[in-house]
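Whether sequence alone determines local backbone shape is best considered at the level of individual chains. Part of our work consisted of pairing the sequence of a single chain with a tokenised description of its backbone. This step matters because it turns folding into a mapping between discrete strings. For completeness, the protein is quoted in full, as a sequence line and a line of structure tokens:

_____
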Amino acid sequence: RKLFFDTHALVCLLEENGFTNQQSEVIVSALVKIMNTNLDMIYKDMVTKVQQEIALQQVMSHIGGVKKDMIILEKSEFSALRSENEKIKLELQQIKKQVMDEITKVRADNKLNLNLEKSRVKELHAQQDRALTQTDRKIDTEVADLKTMLESHKLDNIKYLAGSIFTCLTVALGFYRLWI
């Protein structure tokens, strides 16, 4: 440690200002002790360049250790996430397969229901067609019966008309013969 002021010059200055030699030396000695104590306190808080380098190396090695720990933790966490992701993928594939199976079942059920409904509709149409055909046949039969009856009545009317005409002619001829 070095003091950067001249103690002898301070003693001389104090003597010039009215202090005795002994008083000046005591004051300077007290000031030197105070300054040394202050410097000791300052030096306790301060480090040397070598100590600073050592502390820096210790901090850097500690940071390196923390980095390694973080990398290891990150890798283990990453692998845990990867395995969890694989599990989720497998579960998702299973769910997807189940959904596809359900969709297939629903489609098959819908097709079956649709085919059944088509069959029912076809059967209903067939029944309606049969009923319509029977009704048409009945109508045709009735129309044919009516035509036959009409022809029969027509022939009967012609017979009666012809008979009436011949009867009238016979009566007219009979009167004509009687008059002639």
Notes: Residues 1-46 form one domain.
